[in-house]
Amino acid sequence: MPDRRAGADRRAQRPRPLAALTRGPYDGSTMSVPTLDLVGTPFEFGVAHGRAFRAAIRAYAEERVALAGGAAWTGRELSRREVLALAEACVEPHRAYAPDLMTELEGMAEAADVSLAELIVVGGFTDFIDTVAGANRAGGARLETRALDDCTAFLVPGSRMADGAAAFGQTWDMHESSTEHVVLLRGRPKGAPAFLAFTTAGSLAMIGMNETGLSVGINNLMSADGRVGVTWPFVVREMLKAEDLAGALAALERAPLAGGHNYLVLDATGAGANVEAMPTARHVTPLADSAVVHTNHNLHDDTRAVERPREPASQADSEARLADAARLLDRHALTVGDLQAVTAHEANICHRGEAPRFVGTCGGVVTRPAGREMWAVRGLPSEGSYQRFAFEDVPA
Prior knowledge:
Blueprint: H1 2-11, E1 35-38, H2 42-52, H3 54-68, H4 71-74, H5 80-89, H6 91-97, H7 99-112, H8 116-123, H9 125-138, E2 153-156, E3 167-175, E4 182-187, E5 195-200, E6 207-210, E7 215-220, H10 232-239, H11 245-253, E8 261-266, E9 272-278, E10 281-286, E11 292-294, H12 301-304, H13 312-328, H14 336-343, E12 359-368, E13 373-378, E14 387-390
């Protein structure tokens, strides 16, 4: 395949180099969001991504595969071989769900010199943890309750916005070393809308918007019914092929999910929905006249029935963030700046990590689908400035 690699060489636009994965806390400083332009075939998308972030992807893979095998995460120790065997079992479900995205992952794997199994762990780590926990549960092992998530996300109807246009926003929280791997992908796939995806090196998408205005965000959930299946970055990218809310929800509905995530969806008409999506249960809440806010615990009986219990401190934190965001958004004439300020609210929503886990706010995103506009910040929103991204900058 030398011709494909040569084409990718010409097209890859490399951001400034990222630091190696750190083991301690991130210092909290914000930086501009590196961008990577993706054009050509799905394989060329993957090659450009893998070459631009080769060192980061390899380091991230090493750490996340090790974490996935740790008892602190899933209830029992697994060897690297056992972790990768379970991830390898997830390859075919991903391929069946979105063949073009698997081709993209193959290009990334070749360029970064890692396996497809490792990339499934890198990109879909929190879902994959649910898969491991589900396998442990089937074998009678204790389910661990530890969590590595503090995301706060919301949909705001047009009736609450000063300009009448509905909007979406969220923080993205993870181990603070992940901040160094944040990147914005700008892609123009053949036969699908161009997209902007806020993500990390090695992951196809975490949060995104396409050129029709369709926006997708997420919160992690902890499922007890994890299984071999499709991880959430594939689902987000597949949803970004849709042109409206109905199409995005259909893409989510047909996904055989590996683990639990909450998905927030909003289109250019202002139609939106929040979906608590577990492997075996889902609950849809349509956007109506008030903001819909979600954090990291399930809110409905049907999805709570298959939720892994959270540690008391983690549950309390998720509930406090939910209440804070709901209070801050319970007013009219909101602006995009107001939504950015919600993500920067330091009482609970935007925070630095603390030992021993160093889970903190690694970035934030706000979108205005009617205007096809996205704003993103890398690092703590309380200390940085949001950058505006629009589709006139996506390469043809």
